[in-house]
Structures are given as structure tokens and as C-alpha cells.
Amino acid sequence: QSDDSDKSSQESDSETEVEHVSGYHKLLATLKTSPESESEEEEDESESEETGESEAEMGSEGSQETGEAEEGKEETNDVPEEEEGDTDTAEQMLSQEQADGTDTPCDPHHGVIEEFTDVKHESEFSLETNFMEEESGDCSADRKDSNPFKQHMDKELEEKEIEKMSTLPKTSSQSQWPRLGQVVFSSTLEKQKTFKADKEFDVKQLHLHKPLESTWPKVNKQFLSAADKPTDSSFTPLQRELFCVMNSYRDLFYPERSALTNGEEIRDAYCLHALNHVLKANAQVLSNNARRRDRKPGTDADAHRDQGLTRPKVLMIVPFRECALRIVHVLISLLEVNDKKKIDVSNKKRFKGEYGSDPEEKPPNLKRPEDYEAVFAGNIDDHFRIGVAILQKSMRLYAPFYSSDIIIASPLGIRTVIGAEGEKKRDFDFLSSIEILIIDQADIYLMQNWEHVLHLMKHINLLPLDSHGVDFSRVRMLNLNNWSKYYRQTLLFSALQEPQINSVFNKHCFNYMGQVAVRNVPLTGSISHVVVQLPHVFRRLEADSVTSVIDGRFQFFIDKVLPEYRDAIMSHTLIYVPSYFDYVRLRNYFKKEDLNFTHICEYTKKAAVCRARRFFLKGEKQFLLFTERFHFYKRYTIKGIRNLIFYELPTYSHFYSEICNMLKATDSGVDATWTCTVLYSKYDVQKLAAVVGIDRAAQMLQSKKNVHLFVTGEN
């Protein structure tokens, strides 16, 4: 399916529709379709599967560490095949809303030859040539001083404030919120006041644009319990506090998103905020269109500065097509007042074909953890982008970027549009006036290619290279002054605290309203979920800096740890390696030292994986090098482990207990000989706390001695 769906990422050279042919269209013409994803068969637990071809490290994902592939080359993440899940509701509900024969037909197997952009509805969705419908109101509520949208966008910053934000460090304060917990507020401007959560509020107090006041309670009712109704009938406690931050237009970092528990209610909340922002912004433009049309000669033509240098206002970054499908479904539901008043959605049938998943393509049921099933539900193609235009009672899918209000894309999808330095065909002007950036499931991008996220952050809110037909008399002064980044709100959601994610929030978010970050510490670590009796030895390595810890860890491992495992008695040793760069380095060293080992990474072919697992189980290979990203995408149970070495603490804390619990799959009766060794440094404080708990982590970091823990299996 990945192969077929990726065909939609091409553009034919024989494109006949020339309207809005911009740089990003031309760039796509140079792309090749990605290789077909492997079709994984149900694993043979007897480990006697066929031996086949030798390992081939394929795909360009490894280029993030090795630099062997070109920057602009399309990637395949060797993502797992689509699993059965209980989350097909978005596709099913969207299919119930199919338009009758008005959409461009799409091959049921995603066989789209070229990337489709809708040019047929250009005038219908043009902001410049349309006016506010009478029954939609004149957006009078949007002119109230208390309206968050107007307050944020109409604020006129001064040069000295911009200089202060550019040079001075942020001041921080902490507060305890009922649901979010420990919340840290950061701001450069001194006049920021203590920000408190609203214990309860009425949806009418939020200044939501029509029809959201009436549609939101209906859309969100699936997440509400009886306990929520006495205080507020339309928001869960988590949504109430998150939306309180969103609606204040402060930046937000929430690192406790879970695909199993709160992921969908968070998606609903940010979709409400994004759609509310777009509807208000567009209503303001349409109202001013009428005022400009009816104004008397001689009146000030500059009185209606209400837009940016380019039209896109909201950018949503999500990992898979299934996520985009669910977002579009939520947006449609929020716009439909009732079952009788369906909104007109252009190209819905094509969208369902390209972003939905075919139940017949799903493989047999495979045993995987619940969190895996939740993350990898539906269409998991990770190369896509789609423009969405919204005008009053209509939605246009596949709108050209410069005619879109919302852009939904994966990091890879947006990266191939932006291009690389020196390339002739690249385009990022459409990012110039983004007012809300939403990065959802940021932790997954660590498993894909984090460089794409950094590349996006370097190209957002820059002055465009071309005017793109903008009416400069309507452009806000903040955009003309190149101050867009100081007004942009960034909403960052992740499943974990991680230095690279923290860095994006701290170094690439400049919102003058300040930042709000949830900073809860884990009281109990994932080690409490280890069910086998296993001694855990945490060995501390010393390093002078974050950059030196990579070499320090390697030297510590080959000098202090590996010699203890060279003896044949220490056979069946699995070495868990989070970084692909470290994996390659260790693999090369093991080859050089002629050690008896085998290895599995995210690019290893299935036949080679089967062979490596069998050799390791039978003891024919003493060591198994095993990458974190392979575990993330496959979640195989590795049998035969007697000794575990965590070369570095896992990115996901629950991977620690998952790997340790693999030892129970080995029925050898020699439990007493099992060992687990973990390497850590003082720079691993967040990962360490997530594994052993904050109190024990603090003690371990204060002491420079090795720490021995014994888990009884009854924790």
C-alpha cells in the first residue's frame, strides 16, 4: 500500500492545469516513488524460518546519522505494515459523508499517478473576491476587546520589545494545575502576569466563532464522562486546561500525550482552536472586503490590514496519513451544525481513497502491545501533505498551498517541498505567515528523522521571495516588519520529555505571549513493570560535555563493559542500541575484533532478521546488536536472551521493561544467571528518571558509584 499511496506524491510532466503552478509543484516532479514497504508475514515463534538473502541496509533514513544519502532524497522508514486496530472510525465516519459523484474518482488501491491539486474551485474559495454572508453575521463579537484572537493579532509590538525578546533570557515561574500538574511559564516581557487555569468556564465565554459553540459539545461528547458534566458539559478536565492555554495564544509543550489514552481528546482540542482561528481570520477578511467595496472615496485604504503575506495560517505536522484523516474528519464535524446541514467538502472521495486504509490489505492478526496498535492504526504512510481551504460553509481539500488556510503534512512531506540549500526547485514562501504551528506526536519523529523537523523550524516565518499576488495594503505591519515569528503560536505534543524536543520548544519558539510547558517528573519508573527476577547494574560513565559523551560511552563500553562479556559463559548477550550511529560504530568494531555476533537494525531484510534471531537463540552467535528503531517499528520478541546490555537508556521508558521482560520467553531454568547492565551519564537525567523514578535517579546522579538494583518481579 505504501508504494501505491506514495504515487500520489509525484507530479506528471504533462500536467495540463497551469493555474497556481508554484515552486513546490515543480520540485515534486523530480521525486521518485519510494520502494514498496516490506510485507511482514506472521513471525514464526519456533525461529526455524528460512534463511535467505544477506542483510541489506536500505532506505535513506539512516542518512540522518551517516550522511551517506543526499539531503533531498525521499525516504522510506521501513515502517511496519498496517495492523488491525479499533481506530478505523475516522475512515468509516468520513465514508458516510461521501458526496455523490462530484469528486474526482480515485483508484481504490491508491493508484494516483500524480499529486492532485484542486484548481476547479479556486474562485469559490478565494478570500479576495468573496464577502461575508449575512446569516453568518458580521463577526461583531470578534471586535470585542476581550476576544483572544483580536487581542493577540492586533497587538502592536515596539522595536524595543522585539530587541528585548531577541537578546534577553526568559524569566520563568512555576505553578501547580489540577490536571496538568507542574506547569512552567516562561517569558521575556516583564508585564507577563501569573497565568492560572480556569476551574470551569462556559463554552460561550471562549469567543468561539459560529458554528463552533453549538458543534463542539456534540463532537466532543465521546470523551466526556458523567463526572465531567456537573462542572462543564463540553470539555474534559485535560481539554479544559489545555484549551485555556491555547486560547490565550501562548506556546504550549505537553509531553504526556498517549496514543492509548488522551491522544484523541487532545486532537479534538487543537482542531477546535485551529478552526476557530481560521474562521475568525477569514471572517475578518470577508467583512473588510465588504467595507472596502462600500467605502467612500478619500477614506483611508490602510484601515483594513487583516492578513499575512501568504494565506496559510495553520500548519499541522502529524506522522501518518491516518492522523490527517482523523483531523479532517474532526474539522468537518465541527463545521456541520446538524445532520441536515452538511457542509460541501470538495474532493472528499479522493481524500478517503488516498488517506484511508483498505481492510483487505491488513495482514493476519499479530501479537503486538496495545500502544503499538494505537500508534500504527490505519494508513501509516509517512510521506504526504495536503492543503485545506475553509470558507464559511464549505471546505476544499487538496487546495494549492497558496490558496489554503490549513496545511496538514508529515515532516518528510513538508521537507521535500522546502528542498535543500542550492536546489533550484524549492519553495517555502507558503510558511511565511503561519500563525499557529501544531506539532503532534513529536516523539515519533525521533524514530523517523528529526532533521526534517529542524529543517522546517529554520524555514518557517521567513520573508517570502515572491509576492504571490498579495495586496500589500491588506498585509499586517507585523508581517511586513518580518516579526511573524514573535506572533506565531506553537503547540507541541509528545509522549515524553526529550532533549531534542525540548530544544525546539526553547530555541525556536519566540511568541511574545510566552511559553507554557508541562514539566512533571515520574515518581515511579518503568523498572517497576519488569516481571522477571533480574539484577540491574547501572554503570555511570563520566563525560565533560554533551558532545563528548558519545565517544566517552563507546570508550567506556569497549574498555570496561565488553571485556566482562567476552567469555563464552556470557553467551546470549543482547546489546540494545538507541542510536543508529552508535550501532554502526559498534558493528564495525565487532567486525574488526572478529567477535562472534549478529545484528538487527531497522534496515535489515526479513530473511536476515529471521536468521539472526535463530542464530542468537541457538547460541551460535554470542552477541546480538539490536537497534531501538527496529524495536519501535516491529516489536518482535527476541528469544534466548540471558544477558542484557543497554548501551544507552531507551528513548521510550516502557521499552526498558519490554526488553527486560523478553527474558521470560527463555525457558532455560537458569534465572540466577541472568544479568542486565545499563550505561548512563549525568546527561541522561530525564531518561534515567523515567526508568528508575525521580528520587532514585537523583541519588544515582549524586553518587559516582555503580548502582545495583534487584527487581523481584512483584513490583
Automatic annotation (TrEMBL):
Pfam families: Utp25_C (PF06862), UTP25_NTPase-like (PF22916). Residues 249-516 form the UTP25 NTP hydrolase-like domain. One of its GO terms (molecular function) is U3 snoRNA binding. Residues 37-58, 67-89 have a biased composition (Acidic residues). Interacts with CAPN3; the interaction is required for CAPN3 translocation to the nucleolus. Component of the ribosomal small subunit processome for the biogenesis of ribosomes, functions in pre-ribosomal RNA (pre-rRNA) processing. Essential for embryonic development in part through the regulation of p53 pathway. Controls the expansion growth of digestive organs and liver. Also involved in the sympathetic neuronal development. Mediates, with CAPN3, the proteasome-independent degradation of p53/TP53. This is U3 small nucleolar RNA-associated protein 25 homolog. It comes from Melospiza melodia. The gene is Diexf.
